[in-house]
Write a structure and sequence with these properties.
single chain; 376 residues; alpha/beta; Rossmann fold; OB fold (Dihydrolipoamide Acetyltransferase, E2P); 8-stranded mixed β-sheet; 7-stranded mixed β-sheet; 4Fe-4S; 23SrRNA_MeTrfase_RlmC
Length: 376
């Protein structure tokens, strides 16, 4: 993949861009093997590859510059704004959308936020595209509600120009720190749910719910989890840190009892909608802390699936899972280091299968799926 911004030293987000893609995969696989060196792995599967460009379904753009000439992208370490509207990681459709958003910012009077001066209103623009139908979710992250009415008055023009805008909202982030979004979300459209589908599973994305940024690789990840779980003959499972339910809904069958747990209520609302559309009667989702839920339950499912944030599941949950002793654990991780440290704590389990999914090409990051079976 060629990137003029990288060549000009304006953006180095893709740190591994100069490395040939096959070598990137080799280095990620070697690193994973090193981290799991103390854990015998029964079966290593080949890495699942990604497209080199155009694979991201979501853009997180810092808004800088002036209201008349806004810049959408990042801020260079030297403090100058860098326009990323032509970033090759985004689908081609994003370029036209960004081109229409820039004059809209001026029309709505959304002054870009200046971090140094702590002045201005518009901090970020968050754009998500559905691979199912090309519909869009657009979120404006503002410092306050000061410009909210101006934005609402200008919005019909943007909606006429971009009829694919299905979900529009404003997030209020008043803290003068590098925090992407705040707790308050204000809907600007009646619809606040973006339809998506991976494989044969309908999924939904709401403004504050997490969704993978590489849908093609995510689809392969979920399909692999379904394949592995389907071969175990289980009748009950938990899906902890379940997000919008991608893993659990792929693995569930009409006969299986599934409980999905996620702290974010927005994501749980999406998961419940998907389960209803799929006609799954033995599935339940709840907005709870995953560790608190697990440690407070007496029942033991056949399999516990965990998909935690980068910090991993931690010693408390590892200890409880060991004590609870489900026959199988399925661990999906975006941080191989914490995956390895957690598996080391799960000493009563043997690692059956491991596969790397290259969710983040041109970086050191990846997603890893590991199946663990209780010894004895």
């Amino acid at each position: 993949m060629h990137c003029a911004l990288y060549d000009a030293d304006r953006c180095r987000s893709c740190q591994w861009l100069p490395i040939p893609y096959p070598r990137q995969l080799e280095q990620k696989q070697q690193r994973l093997s090193q981290l799991l060196a103390s854990q015998p792995v029964k079966s290593w599967l080949p890495p699942a590859t990604s497209a080199m460009q155009g694979f991201r379904n979501k853009a997180k753009m810092v808004v800088s510059g002036s209201v008349e000439r806004p810049v959408l992208g990042i801020v260079h370490p030297d403090g100058t704004p860098v326009d990323l509207c032509d970033c090759p990681l985004y689908p081609q459709s994003f370029g036209d959308i960004f081109a229409r958003l820039k004059p809209f910012i001026a029309q709505a009077g959304l002054t870009p936020y200046n971090v140094a001066r702590r002045r201005g209103e518009l901090k970020f623009i968050l754009l998500t595209e559905s691979t199912l139908n090309g519909q869009l979710m657009l979120r404006f992250v503002l410092r306050s509600t000061t410009k909210l009415e101006q934005l609402k008055r200008a919005l019909p023009t943007l909606q006429r120009q971009l009829p694919q805008l299905s979900v529009i909202s404003v997030n209020i982030q008043p803290v003068p720190m590098a925090i992407l979004e705040g707790e308050e979300e204000i809907a600007l459209t009646d619809n606040q749910t973006l339809a998506e589908q991976l494989n044969d599973v309908p999924l939904w994305i709401r403004p504050q719910s997490f969704f993978q940024t590489n849908p093609a690789v995510a689809a392969r990840l979920y399909a692999t989890a379904r394949e592995w779980v389907g071969g175990l003959g289980i009748s009950s499972m938990w899906d902890l840190f379940c997000g919008v339910g991608g893993f659990g809904l792929h693995c569930a069958t009409p006969e299986m009892s599934l409980t999905g747990i996620e702290i974010a209520a927005e994501a749980i609302a999406c998961a419940r909608l998907s389960a209803e559309l799929m006609g799954l009667k033995k599935v339940s989702f709840a907005a709870l802390d995953s560790t608190a839920f697990a440690t407070g339950e007496a029942a033991v499912p056949d399999l516990v699936l965990v998909n935690p944030p980068r910090r991993g599941i931690g010693a408390q949950l590892c200890h409880y899972l060991t004590t609870m002793a489900p026959p199988y654990l399925l661990y999906s991780s975006c941080n191989a280091a914490t995956l390895a440290s957690d598996i080391a704590l799960l000493s009563d389990y043997a690692v059956e299968k491991v596969q790397l999914f290259d969710m983040f090409p041109h970086t050191a990051h990846s997603e890893v799926l590991a199946l663990l079976k209780r010894r004895g």
